[in-house]
Amino acid sequence: MPAIAQFKLSGVITDALTRKPIEAVNILVKNTGKGTVADDNGNFTLFLATGNYQITFSSVGYQPQTRNVAIRQNTRITISLVQENKQMDALTITDKAPDQNIKSVQMSRVQLDLINIRKIPVVMGESDIIKVLTLQPGVSTVGEGAGGFNVRGGRVDQNLVLLDGAPLFNTSHLLGFFASVSPDAIQDVSLYKGGIPAQFGGRLSSLLTLKMRPGNYEKLKFSGGISPISSRLLLEGPLLKNKLTFLVGGRVAYPNWIIRAFPGDTKKNKAFFHDLNGKIQYKLNEKNFTSLTLYRSYDSFKFPEDTAYSWQSNAASWQWNSLVSDKVSFSVNAIHSEYGFGTEGLNPAYGFKLNSTIQHQEIKANVSYTPTPRHKIEAGASTIRYRINPGELKPTDSESNINSVVLEKEHGVEQAAYVSDEWYLGPKVSLQIGLRYSRFNNTGAGRVFRYQTDVPRSTETVTDTLLYNQGQTIKTYGGWEPRVALRVEIDNKTAVKLNYNRTRQYLHLISNTTAISPVDFWKVSDAFVPPQIADQVGVGIFRNFQNNNWETSVEAFYKNMQSLVEYKNGARLLLNPSIETDLLPGKGKAYGVELSVHKNSGRLTGQASYTFSRSLVALQSPFAIEQVNQGDYFPSTFDRPHNLALSSLYDLGKGWTFATNFIYITGRPATYPDGKYILNEVPVVNYSRRNADRIPDYHRLDVSFTKDTRKTKDQERYQLWIVSFYNLYARKNPYSIYFTNDSSWTRSYRLAVFGTIIPSLTWNFNF
After folding, report:
1. Angle at CA 400, nearest 5°, toward 395 and 405?
2. Is residue 378 a contact partner of residue 367, using CB atoms and an 8 Å limit?
3. How many helices (H) and strands (E) does the chain have?
């Protein structure tokens, strides 16, 4: 029998408005059983015999499109999909294609549905990406209003947060009440809790990527909203039609009237924040794009006594994307990111200014080669330069009694290269193997103390001081970081997945507070502080029901951590020129099981997730006087074994939506006094074991009602009115327990951040 001629059908799939490539689009050739899935850059390839075909292109959030294609020779086409403005969509999805959680090798990934983030009830009515992420299994915070988030028992600084590739070193406004990035400007939110792609490194626990929207190619549009605590506005449109687009947006807050309404001495408290987002994208031709992203945020907070705090972030990211051929794509990024905090003492007798900053400058390149639709190879390299001012204290004038303290600046260079190969070995099995190598140099100028080796490090045991010139290497670290992921498809509705990854972290946030505070500072690995290292293995079972309407999963993980940065009892961290004398290396382990159920369509959609996990740490020291809890493992600050989150959206009809959140989580560990003794006739409370107690468990119910004024799905001008009730049954969830002491009694007090119901009315508009 003569061979039947096969021709190649290839193409790219883009968003009809933004012209941005769409990943993970399902492509099905009618009556043939053939199909494929578009890659991360929207590219696809099929091999078909001569003939006429009907080919359907579909993706969640877009209207399906069917194209008649005649195959007589190798053919290339461009498909533009139109966004589908549904009034009810899934609360969260695990990937873009309806069954991608089964077909993709990736596991431990959460991708948010930004359409409905506005409808989820949150405090003060301000949409918040971080708060929505904490509804996902394995993600939590140390308390209400705490900055940042914790993933699978990890610390806040162990999360790599990238805005169009630029790292953000602080993700919170108002000391943790709100996320520092407005969801209005964001197109895609993806959180990797495990199985981090080989392209990324530098953090132990997770990767959070935030991709900004490129701006509308067709027309000028603006949107925004007003809530009780802030207002926001976003403007986007074309500068050159079908070529150059822009997007600019910002938020400004006015929380003072609410702060002053709280009981107690809050009349002189002041708070403020703003953030700005901007992006310009230029399309040179069908195969080349370039873009520039800019970001800024600023916060200030003043206590009534005499201290004012401020912190700010600035970031810029330039990117060039090129489709060299149907099989090869290339990208280059240049990145600058900086973060700094300032503290000002306002008492004239003790007036001071304290500042600390970190700068991150990076250039990286990536190349992707797709020899067949079922085989993809990626490789790349990056170089990062760090500059850190750990602390600088100066008096504000000659009348101040404060002495100047200026710590030496820290410098470091991190370099990395990686290669990754994803291969569909058959219809049921796919494998992804990645290998990353990273190297870090701590460089001068600077000085390094030498200490006696047979006693604990202290300022009294310094034996020598070594001086290093500018750019001279002080200490070098490095190593391999393998990544492996395997998917075995049991049937069209069920898959089993496994992954393993090793990560190294050369950058550390120095803090001994429960949550992020404005005086925490960053430092690089040096001669005394080695990089943190984590090995994590995960296994999961994924099962879909009713034509992918229901998604269920069970994931188990185990994470082993080395060289954690811990602190001694009674440590002094701020403005300490020999900080290594108050730090200890620690080892940690975290393990758990995550269960998740999603309902993706119908009038009622939502998610139920439950996590059982443990996070333990042990401090390593050969000296008994430095040991914490006798060197045994004890619960870390982020150890919260039981975490239940229930979220739902119900379509009431006529544009009305009812949404609920219920959260229950075990109270975090705390250190309570276990005795009292008299020293020089003064009563002293004794704390012998760290994190041996727990604050009470946390639980909360939120509800909201949303009115959508759209009459049709494609209506572009519409409004959303949202009435929400945060903490509906007014539980006084404790943030902390603290103690006071007098000659006879030790009294305990419970501090609750929100001890009552908080109603809110928010207006969002699109024109």
Report:
1. 35
2. yes
3. 3, 51
Nearest C-alpha neighbor of 413 from the set 441, 433, 371, 438 = 441
User: Is residue 86 scored above 50 in pLDDT?
Assistant: no
Sign, CA dihedral 38-44-48-53, equals positive
Contact criterion met (CB below 8 Å) for 318 and 358? no
Radius of gyration of the chain (CA): 27
What value does the mean pLDDT take over residues 467-486?
96
Contact partners, residue 223, CB within 8 Å, separation at least 6: 184, 233, 234, 764, 765, 766, 767
Q: What is the pLDDT of residues 435-458, one digit of tens each?
A: 999 999 999 999 999 999 999 999
In terms of DSSP H, where are the helices of 165-266?
A: 256-259
Nearest-CA neighbor of 251 among 315, 184, 186, 300? 184
- Please name the helix (run of DSSP H) or strand (run of DSSP E) that holds residue 102, with its range, or none: helix 100-103
Please give the pLDDT value at position 216: 86
Put simply, whether the predicted model's pTM sits higher than 0.90 gets the answer no
Instruction: Say yes or no to pLDDT of 415 above 70.
Output: yes
Secondary structure (3-state) at 219: coil
Quote the pLDDT of residue 95: 37
Using CA atoms, how far apart are residues 495 and 429, in angstroms rounded to an integer?
A: 9
Question: For 66-75, 314-323, 454-463, 679-688, which range has the lowest pLDDT when averaged over its residues?
Answer: 679-688
Given this model, what pLDDT does residue 748 score? 77
Rounded to 5°, angle at Cα 456 from 451 and 461: 40
Count of alpha carbons within 13 angstroms of residue 125, beta-carbon side? 23
Residue by residue, DSSP assigns 135-179 as: TSTTEE-SSTT-SS-EETT--GGGEEEEETTEE-S--EEGGGTEE
Closest C-alpha to 387, from 437, 459, 337, 429: 337
Look at residues 457, 422, 449, 417 and name the one whose alpha carbon lies nearest to residue 435.
Answer: 417
Kind of pairing between the strands at 172-173 and 109-112: unpaired
pLDDT in tens, 582-605: 999 999 999 999 999 999 888 999
What's the rounded Cα separation, in Å, for the pair 292 and 298? 21
Residue 611 pLDDT exceeds 90: yes
pLDDT value at 93 more than 50: no
Residue 489, C-beta contacts closer than 8 angstroms, at least 6 positions apart:
102, 103, 427, 428, 429, 495
Are 275 and 230 in contact by the 8 Å Cβ rule? The answer is no
Distance, CA of 565 to CA of 585 (rounded, Å): 5
Position 756 confidence tier, pLDDT thresholds 50, 70, 90: confident
Q: Give the pLDDT confidence score for residue 24 in this predicted structure.
A: 74
**Residue 596 is encoded by which pair of tokens?**
């998740």
Query: Are the CB atoms for 552 and 540 separated by under 8 Å?
Result: no
Concatenating the DSSP letter of every residue in 511-556 gives: --SSS--TT-EEEE--SSSPPEEEEEEEEEEEEEETTTTEEEEEEE
**What number of other Cβ atoms are within 10 A of residue 282's Cβ?**
15
The distance from CA 361 to its chain's CA centroid, rounded to whole angstroms, is 20
| Most confident among 101-105, 177-181, 323-327, 442-446 (mean pLDDT) | 442-446
Q: Which of 22, 150, 172 is nearest to 97 (CA)?
A: 22
Degrees to nearest 5, angle at CA 423 with 417 and 427: 160
How many whole angstroms separate alpha carbon 166 and alpha carbon 162? 5
Helix, strand, coil share (%) of the chain residues, nearest 5: 5, 60, 35
Torsion of CA 389, 391, 395, 396, to 10 degrees: 60
Would you say residue 609 has pLDDT above 50? yes
What does the pLDDT look like over 147-197, one tens digit per residue?
789 999 999 999 999 999 999 999 988 877 788 898 889 988 999 999 999
Residue 460's contacts (CB-CB under 8 Å, 6 or more residues apart) are none
- Nearest by Cα to 183 from 128, 233, 247, 125: 128
| CA distance linking residue 489 with residue 311, whole number of Å | 48
User: Is residue 89 very low, low, confident or very high in pLDDT (cuts 50, 70, 90)?
Assistant: very low
